[in-house]
Amino acid sequence: MTTLADRGSFDIANVAQSTFGVLGRNMAAFLILAVALIAVPSGVIQWAQAVIRRDPSMALVGGLVAFVGGIISLVFTFLFQASIVTGAISDLNGRKLDVAGMIAGRVSLIPVLLGLAILQTLALVLGFIILFVPGLILTTMWVVTVPSAVMDKTGVLGAFARSSDLTRGHRWSIFALIVVYGLVSLIISLVGFTLFGGFAAIAAAAKTGLSLGLIVYNALFGVVLNLIGATGVAVIYYELRRIKEGVAPQALVDTFS
Question: pLDDT value at position 100?
């Protein structure tokens, strides 16, 4: 079990260490969820789109597949995050993980997660389009919306307010963590890009509309990005509640009941 320091300041090193500690101890369980909810949907959607692109007459169908697939992928991504939050906080509190229970207990939250996914994505896209900086600010403010919805049962709009409140006073540190996670993910993606054919795969896809190497790379990169991001968000939430509210580990365990 990893126990973050007694109530005090938001320690970036502690949070990062705890994040990768949780990942290391639960890699098998988390990978099962990541493959099922991230890699498989991503691979299927990419394969369908690539096949359809070979036939220009299927452009309308291709657009429909892209739209429906995008919505499904978005919901699955948020469901994955909710499941990882459950698993990560269980681990931090010394409880054994139940993969089936991690996801089954969060299915009922799909309407809330869908609302979060749509509103947060639209707001972030708008923020990045306007001046870019507002997008960064919103990303930092709303970094723990999913844990707030899962653990605090806030509902859609309440999750935004709860996340904004929890992150207040620690946003520069949280932003620094987001940058660190992003850099780690970028390094891993570059290594994977090389291993799975890189530019050769892109060239193959440009000629034939299909590259298995590129599809596998994209799916695996999505797995890595979501594993690090979802676990990191869960640990940030855990640490913020400990610091700002003095919530003991057992109190967070009780929220499962």
Answer: 72
**Which segment, 36-45, 75-84, 88-97, 126-135, is predicted with the most confidence on average?**
75-84
d(CA 184, CA 114): 28
pTM metric for this prediction = 0.81
| SS3 letters across the chain | CCCCCCCCCCCHHHHHHHHHHHHHHCHHHHHHHHHHHHHHHHHHHHHHHHHHHCCHHHHHHHHHHHHHHHHHHHHHHHHHHHHHHHHHHHHHCCCCCCHHHHHHCCHHHHHHHHHHHHHHHHHHHHHHHHCCHHHHHHHHHCCCHHHHHHHCCCCHHHHHHHHHHHHCCCHHHHHHHHHHHHHHHHHHHHHHHHHCCHHHHHHHHHHHCCCHHHHHHHHHHHHHHHHHHHHHHHHHHHHHHHHHHCCCHHHHHHCCC
Mean pLDDT of 143-159: 90
Structural tokens at position 43: 């691979």
Contact 109, 150 (CB under 8 A): yes
Least reliable range by pLDDT among 57-61, 130-134, 159-163, 219-223: 57-61
